[in-house]
Amino acid sequence: MSRSTEELQHATVEQLMAVIGAPDDESVAEAADAAVRALDERLRAEAAA
């Protein structure tokens, strides 16, 4: 199921807040990175459309 841009934005915020709460947790950082990359890809695709 494809997530909406708004859902990706919320997921990114949640992941970045998790990084603030656990700055030394590599798995948290990786999850945040994935969320940011997914949102970036979506926004680039929308801008190109």
Describe the 3D structure:
By secondary structure, the chain is an all-alpha fold. Helices cover 82% and strands 0% of the residues. The protein has 2 helices and no strands. The chain has helices at residues 5-21, 26-48. The longest helix is centred in the last third of the chain and has 23 residues, at 26-48. The model has no long low-confidence stretch (mean pLDDT 94).
Quick gist of this model?
The chain is mainly α.
Features:
about 80% helix, mainly alpha, single chain, about 50 residues
**Order of H and E elements:** HH
- Could you say which structural class the secondary elements and strand pairing correspond to? mainly alpha
Rounded mean pLDDT score: 94
**Spatial extent as radius of gyration:** 12 Å
Main beta sheet: none
Identify low-pLDDT runs: none
Strand content: under 5%
